[in-house]
């Protein structure tokens, strides 16, 4: 079966345990204001013009967003790194976009990986039907599960999707005993004020004993130029990237709850 991916990153060390190969699947139902891969949102392959600076001159470079690949061929690409994965306790991570947006293709590749004994991480925003989520469970060793905003109204405002079904999916995974690492993008002025942090705590406290930990991801403004090239509105225009140090209070506050916390990204 064919699917659409937009990148393969090899030797990744922040996408799960050990050395990993990360596959980025094209397509996402969310529209997060801070998305730094806006070219990955559409499920349609496209070409866009990237500006590249060389010796003070600006050149245009055509960039493909998304390319079709057969599940067998993708598996062969993943398998190329198997020696590094097995020696480091690593594996493969499926990210996006939203990988569950192409469930049949994703599951076919994941099944091949599982049959070959390759550890699998699924990095998801949790937007999927109950059936799709259920089908992912036997194929996934560890979930990276995003909580974009703890307030239902603001979640809809900033991502264009509801929070409630995402939380239901989170609870389905936890009830099934799956390993789940929560990931929270920290976006200045959007979800990092005291009121929003309190709401995040209230959302996570009843679930803390069943999650592996929380990873806070500081906002990166690195995708800003892509919005211009894609002729999309960049609603984070002019807001600088956050430094990891700016999250140290958050780290302390959540560590005080007795959960493993890290700052990633
Ligand atoms: S879930 Fe990820 S890929 Fe999708 S819009 Fe949000 S940041 Fe972008």
Automatic annotation (TrEMBL):
<dbReference type="GO" id="GO:0051539">
    <property type="term" value="F:4 iron, 4 sulfur cluster binding"/>
</dbReference>
<dbReference type="InterPro" id="IPR001989">
    <property type="entry name" value="Radical_activat_CS"/>
</dbReference>
<dbReference type="GO" id="GO:0016740">
    <property type="term" value="F:transferase activity"/>
</dbReference>
<dbReference type="GO" id="GO:0016491">
    <property type="term" value="F:oxidoreductase activity"/>
</dbReference>
<dbReference type="InterPro" id="IPR058240">
    <property type="entry name" value="rSAM_sf"/>
</dbReference>
<keyword id="KW-0808">Transferase</keyword>
<keyword id="KW-0411">Iron-sulfur</keyword>
<feature type="domain" description="Radical SAM core">
    <location>
        <begin position="14"/>
        <end position="265"/>
    </location>
</feature>
<dbReference type="InterPro" id="IPR012839">
    <property type="entry name" value="Organic_radical_activase"/>
</dbReference>
<keyword id="KW-0560">Oxidoreductase</keyword>
<dbReference type="GO" id="GO:0046872">
    <property type="term" value="F:metal ion binding"/>
</dbReference>
<keyword id="KW-0479">Metal-binding</keyword>
<comment type="similarity">
    <text>Belongs to the organic radical-activating enzymes family.</text>
</comment>
<keyword id="KW-0004">4Fe-4S</keyword>
<dbReference type="InterPro" id="IPR007197">
    <property type="entry name" value="rSAM"/>
</dbReference>
<dbReference type="InterPro" id="IPR013785">
    <property type="entry name" value="Aldolase_TIM"/>
</dbReference>
<dbReference type="InterPro" id="IPR034457">
    <property type="entry name" value="Organic_radical-activating"/>
</dbReference>
<protein>
    <submittedName>
        <fullName>Formate acetyltransferase activating enzyme</fullName>
    </submittedName>
</protein>
<keyword id="KW-0408">Iron</keyword>
<keyword id="KW-0949">S-adenosyl-L-methionine</keyword>
<dbReference type="Pfam" id="PF04055">
    <property type="entry name" value="Radical_SAM"/>
</dbReference>
């Amino acid at each position: 079966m064919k699917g659409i991916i937009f990148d393969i990153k090899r030797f990744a060390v922040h996408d799960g345990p050990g050395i990993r190969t990360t596959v980025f699947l094209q397509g996402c139902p969310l529209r997060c204001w801070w998305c730094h891969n806006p070219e990955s949102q559409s499920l349609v392959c496209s070409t866009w013009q990237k500006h590249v600076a060389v010796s003070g001159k600006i050149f245009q470079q055509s960039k493909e967003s998304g390319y079709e690949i057969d599940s067998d061929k993708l598996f062969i690409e993943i398998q190329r790194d198997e020696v590094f994965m097995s020696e480091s306790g690593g594996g493969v991570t499926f990210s996006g976009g939203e990988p569950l947006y192409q469930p049949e293709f994703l599951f076919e590749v994941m099944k091949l990986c599982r049959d070959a004994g390759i550890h699998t991480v699924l990095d998801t925003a949790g937007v999927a039907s109950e059936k799709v989520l259920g089908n992912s469970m036997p194929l996934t060793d560890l979930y990276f599960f995003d909580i974009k905003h703890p307030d239902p109204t603001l979640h809809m405002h900033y991502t264009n999707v509801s929070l409630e079904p995402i939380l239901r999916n989170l609870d389905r995974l936890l009830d099934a005993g799956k390993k789940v690492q929560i990931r929270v993008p920290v976006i200045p002025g959007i979800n990092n004020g005291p009121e929003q942090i309190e709401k995040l705590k209230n959302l996570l406290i009843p679930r803390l004993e069943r999650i592996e930990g929380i990873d806070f991801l500081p906002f990166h403004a690195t995708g800003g130029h892509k919005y211009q090239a894609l002729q999309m509105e960049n609603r984070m225009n002019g807001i600088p990237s956050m430094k990891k140090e700016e999250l140290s209070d958050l780290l302390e506050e959540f560590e005080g709850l007795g959960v493993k916390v890290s700052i990633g990204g």
